[in-house]
Every structure is written in structure tokens, then in C-alpha cells.
Amino acid sequence: MTNHYVATVPVKYTDNEGQERTRFQRVGAMFRNTRSGDGSEFFSLKLDFPVGIQELVMFPPSSKEPQE
User: Fold this and answer.
1) How far apart are CA 28 and CA 30, in angstroms?
2) 3-61 confidence digits (pLDDT tens)
3) Strands 20-34 and 4-14: what pairing?
4) What angle do CA 39, 8, 19 make, to 5 degrees?
5) Out of 10, 26, 28, 43, which residue is the most buried by the measure of CB atoms under 10 Å away?
6) Is 10 within 8 Å of 20 (Cβ atoms)?
7) What is the 3-state secondary structure (H, E, C) of the chain?
8) How far is 54 from 56, CA to CA, in rounded Å?
9) Which residues are paired to 20 by β-bridges?
């Protein structure tokens, strides 16, 4: 099982035959991580280029946050 995913953004374009197509441009990689203290999982998204920040970290919602 892989611990990373390729992060992409969809880019629409029109090919030589006039067909609208979509290509996926790589913008970074997302990694699955495990905390050493309690074993909980979290993800980090590392971008290939700076846009003010270069890394985002995602955690599952805590039980304290309201669920939608």
C-alpha cells in the first residue's frame, strides 16, 4: 500500500480536432502519516511550487467539532 498520492489539478483544453479534453497537471504530493503518540492518521500535502505556503496538513475532524 502506498503512503503517497499525486496531487493534480484538472486543466481543460481544446484539442486539434475541436474536442474539449481534460489533462491533470501535477501540483504536488499528499502523504499519509501516523502519529507516534496515539497512532492516529493524518495527511500532509506538499506543493511542487510556492504559493505563499508549501505544505498543508490535514487531520480528521475531532469529536469536538460539529458534524455537518
Assistant:
1) 7
2) 788 988 889 999 999 999 999 988 889 998 888 888 888 889 898 887 776 776 777 77
3) antiparallel
4) 150
5) 28
6) no
7) CCCEEEEEEEEEEECCCCCEEEEEEEEEEEEEEECCCCCCEEEEEEECCCCCCCEEEECCCCCCCCCC
8) 7
9) 14
